[in-house]
Amino acid sequence: MVEFVYFSMTHPDIKRLFWSIPIILSIHNLEEALTMTQWMSVHLSELRTTIPFFEHLQFSTTQLDVSLFLVTIIPFLVTFICLQGKRTTKKLSILLILQAIIFWNALMPHISGLFVLGMYNPGTITAVLLNIPFSVYLYKRVWQERIVSKDTIRDCIFIGLIAYLPVVYFNHLIAQFITNAFFAS
Question: Which one of 44, 117, 124, 163 is separated from 93 by 20 to 30 angstroms, measured CA to CA?
């Protein structure tokens, strides 16, 4: 699937580029953390009637916080692991797919939410100003520097699309489990 043209995990510029993935995601998640609870308390019933997917999901402030913590810390761990040791096709693929999931997250709930709901939803500002532009920059850069081919980028973006909803749903379930196990009163 992924073929390298040239790639060095030890090049500091490339390492910084890949470390930007979880750092930019953290800024996005901070926006969500600061706005989600208030926004959900006002708009959850409207959200459930407008978007059937939300009809059966349960949300609590603690669960949202746990969920955001998980989707912040896990990309840091993944990036750390992928940038250690010998360069491999698998490691680069994982990082590019991670960014693709972030890209689809910017498009699906945030951009589409602007149109479907006709209003701001938590994370939209950083999705528009950071996540989408960085995704384009990252993929353009790894292609221009001949780190990967266009086919590889296309494959990773497609896999990110396929993985997006299962990752989000799994994260929701894990956050729900952690909340019930450790924070339930």
Answer: 124
3-state secondary structure of 182: helix
SS3 4: strand
Structure token digits, residue 180: 């019930």
Place 9 in a pLDDT band, splitting at 50, 70 and 90: low
Tokens of 60: 């609590």
Q: What is the pTM of this model?
A: 0.90
pLDDT for 8 equals: 56
- Over residues 79-101, mean pLDDT: 93
Residue ranges per structural domain of the chain: 14-175
Residue type, 35: T
Strand blocks (E) in 45-114: none
Q: Which residues pair with 144 in a beta bridge?
A: none
How many Å apart are CA 79 and CA 84, to the nearest integer? 9
For range 15-27, the mean pLDDT: 97
